[in-house]
Specification:
Blueprint (H helix, E strand, L loop, with lengths): L6 H16 L8 H18 L12 E5 L4 E4 L9 E3 L2 E5 L9 E5 L2 E7 L6 H16 L18 H19 L3 H21 L3 H23 L3 H16 L8 H16 L13 H9 L9 H8 L4 H26 L2 E5 L4 E3 L6 E3 L3 E4 L2 E5 L2 E5 L5 E4 L4 E5 L8 E2 L2 E5 L3 E5 L6 E5 L7
Parallel strand pairs: 1-6, 7-18
Antiparallel strand pairs: 1-2, 2-4, 3-4, 5-6, 7-14, 8-11, 9-10, 10-13, 11-12, 12-16, 13-14, 15-16, 17-18
Helix pairs in contact: 1-7, 2-3, 3-6, 4-5, 4-7, 4-8, 4-11, 5-9, 6-8, 7-8, 8-9
Keywords: Signal
Length: 441
């Protein structure tokens, strides 16, 4: 009988976890640090040569210091903002630019933007680079999806079934024997199917984010690491590190993407060619392994295999009680109480995906956030909160008593020229409108 957890893979995982927490914090980016990033990126995308996705991941990279927006780039921008200096290109990003590890359009080009400090541990850096460089080419591959709330993943049952799925995926990824691997995949798919039975919109919402972020993280693991055992260990590492996220609403796909992708690589190496508009990683894996998801039964027995003492269920029960208290507070301050209403037309957002939380069916709460739109910028820091409504037409923050609409507890508003704060349609609220130009004399 095979061991479900090979010792060499667990050793690699232990090293990754240790290195991830032991590395010192880097100082502000300098030329040598940026060049190391650029050379690593060139090596990795050159080694792939466009084989994985049919297109090279090589391209423009910005390394940005969020403290002062200083930029070091690997090439000249078409707009001519950056200045060449010792073989790299330097400058400053404007205040309107969103700062995040992501794809950005700036100065006439699509860039991979990386915030300093980048990981110093080699495996973490390589995975990050390939993840973010994939995002730059993702739209051209047709692999971007309109994201929804996934608010069911902040409920007790949604979280519990997701973590059971993750536990089964971890065992499947590390299983040596094909039959053992297939059995664990069946368990994972059973938990996935039950979650989607309980929550009507779960299938579409989860699938969209798994394409947007799960495929990017799979690409990071697949191209950032050279050996199969490293990839499998890192996939389990991803599952482990996201368990501690305050919320799974948007972070879950980073954990789910690599195990599903690697398992699909084993079961059907051609699976990437079938990532159409409605692709679902679980369905693709079930088809590849000839697993009839509808026939998966005896959920209680499957649960006992991954939560034998019920400790996970108890922990989620306790967390849900705390969540309900937070939801009550957010409803009182961000919905029922006086709020500043910010209309959303051309929004860009910078946030921590691990901290988002659902407010019932109303929308998603962002404990920290930078939100920009035509009216200016909203900055929310720790201690504040903003609500982006589910229809993405508006955001709200709590108004303090006798406030001027420009600042509140944990948030500040910077208005663009031509915009002002006026009373809102509801008594006590305020909103943003364009100023009416004065009539000529």
């Amino acid at each position: 009988m095979s061991r479900p957890y090979p010792l060499h893979a667990l050793a690699a995982l232990t090293c990754l976890l240790a290195c991830a927490v032991a590395m010192p914090v880097q100082a502000a980016p300098d030329r040598d640090g940026a060049v190391r990033v650029f050379e690593t990126a060139d090596t990795l995308c050159g080694r792939d040569g466009g084989a994985l996705w049919g297109e090279s991941l090589c391209g423009p990279i910005l390394v940005v210091d969020p403290a002062d927006r200083a930029v070091i780039a690997n090439r000249q921008d078409p707009g001519g903002v950056l200045v060449e200096q010792e073989g790299v290109f330097v400058g400053t990003l404007p205040e309107t630019a969103i700062l995040a590890n992501t794809r950005v359009e700036w100065s006439g080009s699509d860039w991979t933007q990386l915030l300093w400090p980048v990981p110093q541990e080699s495996s973490l850096l390589r995975v990050l680079l390939m993840h973010e460089m994939f995002h730059r080419i993702q739209p051209t591959l047709g692999l971007t999806r309109k994201e929804a709330g996934n608010r069911h993943l902040d409920t007790r049952d949604g979280r519990y079934l997701l973590q059971l799925e993750w536990r089964a995926l971890a065992r499947a990824v590390l299983a040596v024997d094909a039959d053992v691997r297939r059995a664990h995949v069946g368990d994972a798919l059973a938990f996935r199917a039950e979650r989607r039975r309980l929550f009507a919109d779960a299938a579409a919402e989860e699938a969209a984010l798994e394409i947007n972020e799960g495929i990017a993280e799979y690409t990071g693991v697949r191209l950032g690491l050279a050996r199969d055992e490293e990839r499998r260990a890192f996939a389990v590492f991803d599952l482990a590190r996201f368990i501690g996220a305050p919320s799974f609403v948007r972070s879950f796909a980073y954990a789910s993407g690599p195990p599903y992708g690697l398992l699909l690589d084993d079961a059907d190496p051609t699976w990437r060619s079938r990532l159409g508009a409605d692709a679902d990683l679980g369905i693709l894996l079930a088809q590849a392994l000839r697993i009839d998801v509808a026939a998966l039964a005896d959920l209680d027995a499957r649960q006992r295999r991954y939560d034998a003492d019920g400790s996970l269920r108890s922990a989620e029960d306790a967390r849900d009680r705390e969540r309900l208290a937070r939801v009550s507070h957010w409803r009182a301050t961000l919905v029922d109480g006086p709020v500043l209403v910010l209309p959303l037309q051309h929004m860009n957002v910078q946030f921590n995906p691990q901290t988002l939380a659902a407010l019932d069916d109303i929308g998603t709460v962002y404990p920290t956030l930078r939100l920009t739109d035509t009216w200016g910028a909203l900055d929310v820091v720790e201690g504040g909160a903003a609500l982006i409504h589910a229809d993405y037409t508006r955001a709200t923050v709590a108004l303090p008593r006798n406030g001027d609409g420009r600042r509140g507890e944990g948030w500040t508003l910077t208005l663009a020229p031509g915009w002002t704060v006026t009373p809102g349609p509801r008594a006590g609220d305020m909103t943003l409108v364009r100023e009416v130009s004065a009539s000529p004399p």
